[in-house]
Amino acid sequence: MRKRIGLLTGLGKSMKDLASIVNFLFEVGILAKTPRSGFYFLGSGNQSVAEHIHRVIFIGYVLSTMAPQASQVKVIKMCLFHDLAEARTSDLNYVHQKYAKADESQALSDLSKTLPFGEELIAIVNEYNAKETLEAKLAKDADQLEWIMSLKEQVDTGNSRAESWIPSVIKRLQTEAAQKLAEIIIKTPSDNWWFSDKNSEWRISKKKD
After folding, report:
1. Which of 177, 194, 148 is nearest to 60 (CA)?
2. Residue 140: which of 123, 125, 157 has the closest Cα?
3. How many domains does the chain have?
4. How many angstroms separate the CA atoms of 181 and 58, rounded?
5. Could you identify which of 63, 82, 162, 199 might form a hypothetical disulfide with 138, taking C-beta atoms 3.0 to 4.6 angstroms apart as the criterion?
6. Predicted TM-score (pTM) of this structure
7. Which CATH number characterizes residue 94's domain?
């Protein structure tokens, strides 16, 4: 009986942390319902913050393979957490940011206090925002490349305004790896990955070559 009570007491102490983690996981879910507001001004397309983060993570992984001296794990963590505060602040585009300020530092501070891994979360985001380390530069570039890809997708569906936005975003890129990828992105049709075989026998008659 004493052994069982001891086990329950130990479990009770960890339950507070687990409850905070569950709250965090529910909070992360809000990112899937938070729109990226730049598309309002673009005039076409839509994307949630979670969708944006999803591709940024993959781009960060790719960039880290192109810069093997960087910590791949750290780059991926920065990509994962870089817009986390927007679950509480929402997404402010370049026009919004000129007139309104989202206190992302306070949002992350409040969140981190509830989590057993809160200190690591803050350290990762602070390094990302400082833009000094190679990992931070790669993660920042992953963020910008995702926007370039989103713009290219809109260009390919007929939005000429999107094309005029791309050059200024390319100028923000800091690493050679990202600059090389951007050059290929703007030359590659966004449907090329699945439609490059448009003249194949499969496309015409659904017969495999």
Report:
1. 177
2. 125
3. 1
4. 13
5. 63
6. 0.89
7. 1.10.3210.10
